[in-house]
Amino acid sequence: MSLSKSEDQTEISIDVPREEKNNVPHGGKNIDSYVLSPNMKCIGTLSKEDKSIVVWSITNELIVNYDNSLNISDLEHALNTDKFCKKPDFNFENIFESIYDDPLLGISNCKQVIIKLSDDDFAIDFAIIDIRTKLRQILIVQGLEEWTNGVFFLENEDLELSNMGLIIEPISFQNQILMKNRNGHVKIVLQ
Question: Considering Cα of 62, then 66, then 71, then 73, what sign does the dihedral take?
Fold first, then answer.
């Protein structure tokens, strides 16, 4: 991997081994955005042209290795459940269109990606998808409705949400946890 920077753009080159040239992540298309995990051991990349999200592992020697990916079919399977998607005929390719700004918001140390969604089309305006299982992590949070101001993973693997100016304290990202907000404790279940 090499990194070079000009005044208006950053370019990252990832070498693909010769035996993998026919199976190149993002289909060899440009990477439009990327996010790093809090511990800097994972990088998530997004290609609007290829309509895919790829997760890479970063070794201690700073070697970048392909880990897993999400494509349109994976997103449709993960997001078209439990009335989460409000529109039965939703075109999941729209997630990658510019109307959603940058759809890749974050990645956890555990390789879960945060994807920006439209609250016109979905129950809330983001989803957390486990890159390995390709399943949406279901958050049951009191007061979490339609849209958030910000959502991101912290270095200790907690999830922080802010909703309409109310900052919700960090959430431990485990199977079952307690969330602490200004009004007390609220139980959160991640499935």
Answer: negative
Question: Which one, of 68, 78, 164, lies nearest residue 107 by Cα?
Answer: 68
Q: Which of 120, 171, 167 is nearest to 148 (CA)?
A: 167
Q: Give the domain range for residue 124.
A: 2-137
Give dist(CA 24, CA 34) in Å, integer: 17
- Report how far residue 16's alpha carbon sits from residue 175's, in angstroms, rounded to the nearest whole number: 36
Residue 169 lies in a domain: no
Tens of pLDDT, residue by residue over 76-95, are: 898 887 678 888 888 888 88
Contact 123, 136 (CB under 8 A): no
Q: What is the pTM of this model?
A: 0.73
Residue 133 lies in a domain: yes
Angle at 57 between CA 103 and CA 4, to 5 degrees: 75
Q: Is residue 63 part of a domain?
A: yes
